[in-house]
């Protein structure tokens, strides 16, 4: 459970997206990630509280159905499926960008297509192979981040390598201040920070299958929260202390850049391989979630019953095939508009993820209200400060949604979200009328 959540949440948002964030906001990106981390803490504690009280395999979509409305549950289930579809598109796009390190002229869609075919094969063979691959993918990225933090600490203390003469805490405020591009730059990076953390809520999908949820869920939630926040904030802090933020570029992973500019070409190549496997790791976990969600939606009657089918190895083959074909749209996007693919796709992921986050917060508020009306005691594992912490989450969701409107590429996320919500509303109303007609 912990490795899957880490695999989902530590990916291209940190390894590639942070480069664009540093370029836009400079050291202020640290504050943006800290705010996003605070939101994640509130979400995971609230989700964990509900999961301990009443574990559900459907998790947040089921909680939205129970505590908000059947319509909210329907929209949340399908929107999370969309998030898990578009997420791999962005990650496969990143894999194409990473391959440019070795093959600058390689078309971006080629590595994306190869990665998609390989992951489809992994998922088709067995669930066990997925679990094994995800464990090792997640472990590689954790080792890489810890290695970067230790490497940066050595540079700061000893001054070794070409970066040593410029490594200083003063890099956080010397080059234009902590907010070198003002509040506007900081505001625009909120979407980047949120995108980086989207996926950690996947823990809720697996929570319903935990053997002893009262013990395993609090432990898993606590470990995931502090590990992810430490990894993100710690890694970004090191990156912006070992050299000025102005030396990073938007289209190159800062993790690769820092080793390259330190004169360690071999280490830079190794790190580029690591961030490539990181993208495949997140894509791997997202495709697993998407296929299981589609299978679950079919089981609940919210998707065609034909998708409620498993192979002899207990793999939801039809749901997996549909999921893979849908992710394949991202390969086509990389063929048609490679320069805009990554930021556009991440904006769609952010918009859909923000809906899920808001539903978790609202479901938790309604859950607490129901417990109060019934006079039932609160679970031992709970979200501190509720409902104010829930209000904080919803307020941050609104702020980030507004930030998406300020750039053409990110505005696509809002347009897509509006069309998606309208489509789901039409489908839901049609289904309700058909049910009444029977």
TrEMBL record:
Chief site of localization: membrane
Segments forming a coiled coil: none
Pfam families: AA_permease
Subcellular location: Cell membrane
UniProt xrefs under InterPro entries: AA-permease/SLC12A_dom, Amino_acid_permease_CS
Limits of the Amino acid permease/ SLC12A domain: 1-430
Swiss-Prot/TrEMBL GO biological process terms: amino acid transport; transmembrane transport
Keywords: Amino-acid transport, Cell membrane, Membrane, Transmembrane, Transmembrane helix, Transport
Membrane topology, as annotated: Multi-pass membrane protein
Residue ranges crossing the lipid bilayer per the database entry: 31-48, 68-89, 109-127, 139-163, 183-203, 224-242, 262-283, 315-336, 342-362, 383-406, 412-430
Record-level GO cellular component terms: plasma membrane
Source superkingdom: Bacteria
Family: Belongs to the amino acid-polyamine-organocation (APC) superfamily. Amino acid transporter (AAT) (TC 2.A.3.1) family.
Protein name: Amino acid permease
């Amino acid at each position: 459970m912990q490795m899957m959540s880490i695999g989902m949440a530590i990916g291209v948002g940190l390894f590639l997206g942070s480069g664009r964030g540093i370029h836009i906001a400079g050291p202020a990106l640290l504050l943006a990630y800290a705010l996003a981390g605070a939101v994640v803490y509130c979400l995971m504690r609230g989700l964990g509280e509900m999961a301990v009280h009443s574990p559900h395999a459907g998790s947040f979509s089921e909680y939205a159905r129970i505590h908000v409305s059947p319509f909210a549950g329907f929209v949340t289930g399908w929107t999370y499926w969309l998030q898990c579809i578009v997420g791999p598109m962005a990650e496969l796009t990143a894999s194409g960008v990473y391959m440019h390190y070795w093959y600058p002229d390689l078309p971006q869609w080629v590595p994306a297509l190869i990665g998609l075919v390989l992951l489809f094969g992994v998922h088709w063979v067995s669930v066990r192979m997925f679990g094994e691959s995800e464990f090792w993918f997640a472990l590689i990225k954790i080792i890489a981040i810890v290695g970067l933090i230790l490497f940066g600490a050595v540079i700061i203390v000893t001054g070794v390598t070409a970066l040593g003469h410029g490594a200083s805490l003063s890099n956080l405020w010397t080059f234009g201040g902590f907010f070198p591009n003002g509040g506007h730059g900081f505001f625009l990076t909120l979407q980047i920070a949120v995108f980086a953390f989207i996926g950690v809520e996947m823990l809720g999908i697996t929570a319903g299958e935990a053997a002893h949820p009262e013990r395993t869920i609090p432990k898993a939630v606590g470990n995931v929260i502090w590990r992810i926040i430490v990894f993100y904030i710690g890694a970004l802090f090191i990156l912006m202390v070992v050299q000025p933020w102005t030396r990073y570029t938007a289209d190159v992973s800062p993790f690769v850049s820092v080793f390259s500019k330190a004169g360690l070409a071999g280490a830079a190549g190794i790190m580029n391989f690591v961030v490539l496997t990181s993208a495949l790791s997140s894509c791997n976990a997202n495709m697993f979630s998407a296929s299981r969600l589609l299978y679950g939606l079919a089981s609940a009657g919210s998707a065609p019953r034909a998708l409620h089918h498993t192979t002899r190895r207990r793999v939801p083959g039809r749901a997996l095939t549909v999921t893979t074909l849908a992710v394949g749209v991202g390969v086509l996007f990389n063929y048609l508009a490679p320069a805009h693919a990554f930021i556009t796709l991440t904006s769609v992921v952010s918009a859909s993820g923000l809906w899920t986050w808001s539903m978790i917060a609202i479901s938790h508020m309604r859950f607490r209200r129901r417990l109060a009306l019934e006079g039932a005691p609160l679970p031992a594992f709970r979200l501190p400060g509720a409902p104010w912490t829930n209000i904080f989450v919803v307020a941050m969701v609104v702020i980030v949604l507004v930030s998406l409107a300020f750039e053409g590429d990110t505005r696509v996320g809002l347009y897509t979200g509006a069309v998606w919500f309208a489509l789901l509303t039409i489908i839901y109303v049609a289904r309700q009328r058909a049910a009444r007609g029977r």
